[in-house]
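Help needed: design a sequence for this.
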């Protein structure tokens, strides 16, 4: 009887490991802007890509001249940073997408207005 429970426990552990592995396998990592990184005129970069909640965006840039700010739709449209917005400044930021619209801008003067912003829809 004890042997049966041990086998069932091992099977349950194996099943949990498989499921967690499948979850990781479904998430993808994208480098924003491709080889050129996070820079001007990247607004069109998401076109043609299919993003899912849990995917990771990697923003590569020079932190002395750029940043990444997660904003709402109004902040994206107006190129402004809402109060409480998360500002990333490492130059190698990794941001996990949430379901729905995700908006990012650079809030250095004039950068967002020059196309340094993206809107990403995640299913």
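Sure. Designed sequence:
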């Amino acid at each position: 009887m004890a042997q049966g429970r041990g086998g069932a426990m091992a099977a349950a552990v194996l099943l949990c490991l498989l499921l967690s592995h499948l979850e990781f396998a479904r998430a993808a990592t994208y480098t924003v802007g491709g080889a050129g990184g996070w820079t001007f005129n990247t607004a069109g970069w998401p076109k043609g890509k299919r993003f899912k909640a849990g995917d990771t965006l990697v923003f590569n840039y020079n932190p002395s001249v750029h940043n990444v700010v997660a904003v709402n739709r109004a902040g994206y449209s107006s190129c402004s940073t809402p109060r409480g917005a998360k500002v990333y400044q490492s130059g190698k930021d990794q941001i996990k997408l949430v379901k729905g619209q995700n908006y990012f801008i650079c809030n250095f003067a004039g950068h967002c207005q020059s196309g340094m912003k993206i809107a990403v829809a995640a299913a």
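The first helix runs from residue 2 to 26.
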